[in-house]
Amino acid sequence: MPTTDRAHSLLVAVAALALAASVGVVLQATGAISRVQAKDQSVTIKNFAFTPDKVTVTVGSTVTWTNSDTQVQHTVTSDSGGTLDSGPLSSGQSYGKQFDTAGTYAYHCEIHQGMTGTIVVTATAPTPRPTATPRPTPLQQTGPPSDIGQSPTSPASDPPIAALAAIMVLAAAVLGFGVARHRTSRVR
Ligand SMILES: [Cu+2]
Description:
Layout (H helix, E strand, L loop, with lengths): L1 H33 L6 E6 L2 E3 L2 E5 L3 E6 L9 E2 L15 E5 L4 E6 L7 E7 L35 H30 L1
Parallel strand pairs: 1-4, 3-8
Antiparallel strand pairs: 1-2, 4-6, 5-7, 7-8
Helix pairs in contact: 1-2
Bound molecules: copper (II) ion (CU).
């Protein structure tokens, strides 16, 4: 039965495509998770100012200050807490600090009044894209959805899972249909 065999092959091909698509969804979600990482930033000290004067980074990121003024020393010093304490930085010298705790870090130059800046350290990356970004936590759920961590503000986490499930069901249905037709044609 060449006609049935061809139809069968087509159905298998469609099922394979559906499975490949579902794998793609998973890989995309995984990639989105791995992109939530520390990103280092730089601050230039020039013309008696920190530029940019406000920097937002994620936990684990390193901020590096470089004194680009000529023949002038500056410092990077925390307003309180002592997290930042560069000591005098001569022209061309740099000072780096890794931020492991979320919070707002205000700092100043000890030598020049009015030189101030702020580092904001966030627990998670600011969303790089406005489109739906899958959150890592829902992927670890194995049972039925619980109330823990599920708030009305995170509807973006559901569509990829739903799409994946729909694709898997479709693939299984198409495969089953194809096999059934194939067997029926052979019985005849
Ligand atoms: Cu200064």
